[in-house]
Amino acid sequence: MIQRLLTDTYPAAGAGPMVQVRKLSKHFGRVQALRELTFELRRGEVLGFLGPNGAGKTTTLRLLTGYLRPTSGQALVAGYDVHEQSLEVRRQLGVVSEDTPLSPEMTPLEHLQFVAELRRIDPRAREQRIGDAVEVCGLFDVLTRATGELSKGLRQRVGLALALLHDPAILLLDEPTSGLDPNQIRELRELIRAIGRHKTVILSTHVLSEVQATCSRVLIISDGEIVADGEPHALAAQHAGASYQLLVEGGHEDGAAIVAALRGLPGVEQVALAPLVGAGAMPPRGAVSVSVRALPDRTDLRRELFCCARDHGWVLLELHRPPATLEDVFRRLTAD
Q1: Closest among 326, 335, 98, 92 to 230, alpha carbons compared
Q2: Phi-psi bin for 179: left (phi > 0), alpha (psi -120 to 50), beta?
Q3: Strand pairing partners for 247?
Q4: Using CA of residue 157, residue 160, residue 162, residue 164, what is the dihedral sign?
């Protein structure tokens, strides 16, 4: 139902770039917040925009909306320069913040009517636009209730409906699932994915599992520079490196001795004791769980790990490679 409605309401457009960022830099006095960022986004992409605090993520979003002026470089939104043609850029953008500012006394319908007037939507098209946004965001049952009585998830849906009202080409979503329960998160995630098939979506969040489940592309910045750009699963395979989980009975050796021995192996980057998982509810007495990460140029350490256990007389109960995650990539690229 949602997919059909979106197809009818927001038909797909051409495949040209919807967002073009070219050597974009921003200085605040002596602080260089952005360093020649360059990337493009096309319609139909859902971008997870990630970075640690202070990396330049918020600065980038403010530059794209025209709130800030770049020190150098250029940003185009739907072909319009964000500095020279800021009014046209704002017509192409829909923004949903972490806590959408809504009047608690007004109903969702009153909010939509008010914003439709502010956006100067043709009065002949307002009823249809409002109806489309209400149906896409699932607001029909709460349309005449005071917004202050609605749950956080429903208020976020109201904010999304307001952002979609003028049919923007690009949606900027800043922490849209913050404060939602798991059911609300799943519903909003499905809605974002469906909208992303017809629009360009930039999702800024610290919840990496949401990005992995929702986004078709990930861009990570650190210290004002792009450090990774690609599909979530491809980035995990490329940057996370090989990691291993071992469950060992060390005999007379304790956990510290086992970790020290594994750290001495060629090709090992990091070794740490880990919680006892994967061994069932009752792990063997004296068993030690160890996490081992290989250097980037080493893809297989299984032989070395097995031989180390054999040479030290350990009983190797488990040896497996956990799947790489986006969290591994993020930590690896932004740890400094």
Answers
A1: 326
A2: left
A3: 289, 318
A4: negative
117 versus 197: the higher-pLDDT residue is 117
Express as a percent the part of the chain with pLDDT over 90: 57
Give the burial class of 247: count Cβ atoms within 10 A of its Cβ; 0-12 exposed, 13-18 middle, 19 or more buried: buried
Q: Phi and psi at residue 318, in whole multiples of 5°?
A: -145, 145
Same domain? 188 vs 288: no
User: At which residue do the structure tokens 């809605």 appear?
Assistant: 191
Q: Can you spell out the DSSP letters for 154-196?
A: HHHHHHHHHHHTT--SEEEEESTTTT--HHHHHHHHHHHHHHH
What's the full length of the chain, in residues?
336
CA distance 19 to 184: 29
Non-local (6+) Cβ contacts of 115 within 8 A are 162, 165
Mean pLDDT in residue range 287-301: 85
pLDDT of residue 139: 93
Terminal CA-CA length for the chain: 46
Cα 301 to Cα 172: distance, rounded to the nearest angstrom: 42
Report residue 312's pLDDT band, with 50, 70 and 90 as the boundaries: very high
State the number of CA atoms in the 13 A half-sphere of 288 facing the CB: 22
Closest CA to 222 of 16, 4, 50: 50
Cα 93 vs. chain centroid, distance in angstroms? 19
User: Residue 139 gets which letter from DSSP?
Assistant: -
Give the count of domains, the chain: 2
Same structural domain, 176 and 300? no
Q: Which two tokens stand for residue 157?
A: 């849906």
Boundary residue ending a domain (208, 237, 266): 237
Domain boundary among 219, 237, 255: 237
How much is the mean pLDDT over the chain?
A: 87
Token output for 160: 């999304």
Helix (H, G, I), strand (E, B) or coil at 244: strand
Q: Are 47 and 201 within 8 A, CB to CB? A: yes
Amino acid at 44: G
